Structure formats: structure tokens, C-alpha cells
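Ligand-bound model needed. nicotinamide-adenine-dinucleotide.
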Amino acid sequence: MEICIIGSGYVGLVSGACFAEVGHSVVCVDNDQRKIDMLLRGEIPIYEPGLEELVQRNVAAKRLRFTNSIEDGVDHSEIVFIAVPTPPQSDGSVDLTYIERVAREIAGVLKPGQYRVVVDKSTVPVKTGEKVDATIRRYNPSAEFDVVSNPEFLREGCAVPDLMRPDRIVVGSASNRATDLMKRLYEPFQSPILVTDVNSAELIKHAANSFLSLKISYINAVSAICEASGADIEMVADGIGMDRRIGRNFLNAGLGYGGSCFPKDVKAFIAIAEELGVPFHLLKEVERINASQLDRFLKKVRDALWVLRDKKIGVWGLTFKPDTDDVRNSVAIELVNKLAGEGAQVAVYDPKGMVKAVEYKLLHPSVRLAESPLDAALGAEALLLATEWKEFARQDFAGVKANMHTPLLFDGRNLLNPKIMREIGFDYHAVGRP
Ligand code: NAD
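Prediction:
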């Protein structure tokens, strides 16, 4: 099938490459000329495992191409995806200006007699589909189209496998013609397709992300009780997670959730519920617990070092999770900046996140970018692990300790083995573990 994706970021580019991989002909559109130029040169603007090869293979096979022209994309495609940003506004509600603009742009290029399915893949508040539909109709009364909601559930860091074999594909549609086309599009993925109305599909995305955030905050709240009682959160999480009704996923205590989705989607769901007159107090507590995790962690660091000013602190991790270069709303960055803000001399290392952290000017000016994990730990009075990259667990910890000034180790993601770390001689602190 011929498809077009408007917005070639984490969602649009990876989706486009995966649709091409299963045999569809895909045009990825973006209005960021720099991004399109990079893609045309064969460079990938984001890091995502497996993406580069996937893009190269499908460009070579002429199933995937890039343009800055929505008209070009819409003209050649029966299905038009919208995958543009839906950032939060200062009150937590969703800024829908990107979506509205794309709806108008699509209306401007739809030709008479040219039926199109306009699919919203961005995460949007319930009832946005109705607005997209009305907007296209207002700007182009003779356009023939249907609006479908098809929320995306990929996880950064494993977006390619997530898209190639999703747990489920949600298609919110009020039109049989559009539903049939969507089913044909997704047939090669051999995953269950749940067909709903448009409003339900939109709601599923916010409800799912808020539930996952709630699960993280739940285990983090339990980790605080573990710290107060001497219990071990890893054992408690295993014990809870072995119950199949609960499951072990998303029961990892740590510094809290971050990234470009969970914080904004929880905020958005709170705002959506508020606007609909049914306040969602539970989610406000989820946010409060999430924010308190970093405070508790920092308190432990302060308790150990007493005064942070002029202390040399090494930090491992900047990205909001491993296997991505995404540093948007990363708790690790917040941690680094709080330490630097209190006068600590922070040296940080991240395998993929340093370029974007610098490019977006996210770091306190005093922060030093280290060349390796060992370099970050050099002469440090404390080492803090903020993102659970596997390569951090594989370090030569005896060597790390030998290069530190004092062997204080704070593991914000419970990545390391406490017993081994203590045997090596670290004064080791984890989250919710004795
Ligand atoms: P992104 O910022 O990585 O990519 C969005 C792209 O859209 C950018 O390249 C931008 O230049 C482009 N764009 C903006 N306006 C445009 C326009 N008028 N015409 C053409 N291109 C335009 O964002 P993302 O992370 O891919 O997220 C997109 C949406 O998907 C958001 O609603 C997000 O909440 C949702 N989502 C994201 C993830 C994730 O893990 N990143 C997962 C599921 C859903």
C-alpha cells in the first residue's frame, strides 16, 4: 500500500521504516529541512537500535523516501499518518497546534475524488479526531476522507521490535472503508487488531501510559516503605510480580519515570479528566510520588557527603532510559543539574545522550562531559548511577573504586549487585534495598 507519514521523529521515522520493511511504499514527510537533508544523505537523526540498517535497506529497495512536501506525500498515499509532537502546555493540557496545522495542510492538498484515510498516530486527548475531521472539512468541504485514531505504543530503545510485533494494534474508526484499509495495512504484522470507536482509541493511549506510570509510582512508594523497614524492594517486587494478575514489568524502583511520554501523558490525562468534570486525583498522587523519588535520592547523597559544594561527583547516565539518545524530561539530567546547582563539580558520562544534552543546552554550564565511565569516576567523592545502561553494569568496579577519591556509590536504578559492590569495598546505596 502507498502510505505517507507526516512527522519523521521517533514515532514517524521508525513506523515508516517498519511499514516499508513489510512491503508498503512509504513517504516520510517533515518540515524540519535539516532532518530531511540528513535523511536524504543517509544519516539517521535519532539513535534507535536497528533503525539505521532498516532505513538503509528500505531506501535502497525504493520502498522508503523522504520529503518536506506534504502535497507530495498526500498525493501518493491512500493512508496519511499524523505523527507530529503534542507537547504539554504550562497547565499540563496538550498543545494541539501541530496537529491543527497538519490538519489544515492536509485539507489544502486533498484533491477532489481522492479518498484518503487520515490517521492520527500522535498521542492526543479524547475527541481530537472529531476536531481534525471538522478542520479538514472546514478548509476543504469537498474532500473525501475518514479520520482514524491509531495510537502508538512503541518504547524508545526497542521501538523497532515493538513496531514489528506489537502486543496489539488499536484502530479507532467510524468507517468500514477506513477500517478495512487499516486492517490490510497491518495484516503483515500478525498482531491482534482491536477496532474501537475513535474516542475510545484516543482514550486507550492516555489510560495505558497513565497506568504504567501508576505502576512505577506504586513500586516507588513501596520502596520508601522498604527503606524505612529494612525490607528489600527487589525481593518484594519479585514476590508481587510473580502473581500473573500483576506481572513483574514496570515494578522497578528507581529515580522515577521521565522521558517525552509518561510525564506529559499523565499531566494530559489529569487535564483531560478535569476538563470533562471528573477530576482524577489518583494521578496527581502518581506525579507527587514520582517527584519525591529524586528528592529522597538526593537526600541520601547529601546525608553521606554533608555539603555538596566543591565535591567531585561522577554521574553515569543522562538519557531517560537505556538504549536511546532521548534526553527529553530525563530525571538523570534533573539530577545532574541539581547537584551542579548546589555547587558540586559534576562529571557525567552517557553512551548516547551527551550529544543531544549539549545540542539542546540542557546541562548546567559547570558540568564536565567525561570520555568514559571511568573518566567520570576519576577523583570522585561519590559516583551516582542514573540510567541503567547495560555497559555500566559491565565496568571493572575494582578499577573504578581505585580511581575514586572516596568509594561512595549510589545506584539510582538498582542495576548493580549490592553484595558484590560491598565486597569490592564500595559504600553502596540503592533504592529501597538495605
Ligand atoms: P518527535 O519530536 O521526535 O517527532 C515529531 C516530528 O514532527 C519532528 O521531526 C518535527 O519536525 C515534525 N513536525 C512537526 N510539525 C510538522 C509539520 N507541520 N509537518 C511535518 N512535520 C512536522 O516526536 P515523537 O517522539 O515522534 O512523538 C510524536 C507523537 O507520538 C507525540 O504525540 C508523542 O506523544 C507520540 N508518541 C511518542 C512516543 C515516543 O516514544 N517518542 C511513543 C508513542 C507515542
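The pocket of nicotinamide-adenine-dinucleotide is lined by residues 6-12, 29-32, 35, 83-86, 98, 101-102, 122-123, 152, 154, 156, 260-261 (CB under 6 Å).
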